[in-house]
Amino acid sequence: MPLEMRPDCERCGTDLPAEAPGAFICSFECTFCAECADALDDRCPNCGGELMDRPTRAKALQAKYPSSTERKFRG
Fold first, then answer.
1. Which of the four, 6, 31, 48, 73, has the lowest number of CB atoms within 10 Å?
2. Does some domain include residue 28?
């Protein structure tokens, strides 16, 4: 099963396109931008798991494997 590729940072709401680098995820796919991951000392505030670089998804594969459109930022 492919990653959800959530579209935004849960902490600040920054857009995180699936094809762009700069997103960080934990094992539950909680998603944060690089700035927020750094501010969180690379620890997920939801589960305490380690935040790691999220891989990118090639644009050519996004039609077959679309990224999530559900935004998680609660501002």
1. 48
2. yes
In a domain, 71, yes or no: no
- At residue 75 the predicted structure's pLDDT band, cuts being 50, 70 and 90, is confident
Structure tokens at 10: 């849960």
User: What's this model's pTM, rounded to 2 decimal places?
Assistant: 0.92
CA–CA dist 39, 23 (Å, integer):
14
Could you read off the pLDDT of 3-59 as tens digits, one per residue? Answer: 999 999 999 999 999 999 999 999 999 999 999 999 999 999 999 999 999 999 998
* Residue 27 neighbours by CB under 8 Å, 6+ apart: 47, 49, 50
User: Is residue 2 assigned to a domain?
Assistant: yes
Q: How far is CA 60 from CA 11, 13, 65, in A?
A: 29, 26, 9
E strand or H helix at 36: helix 34-39
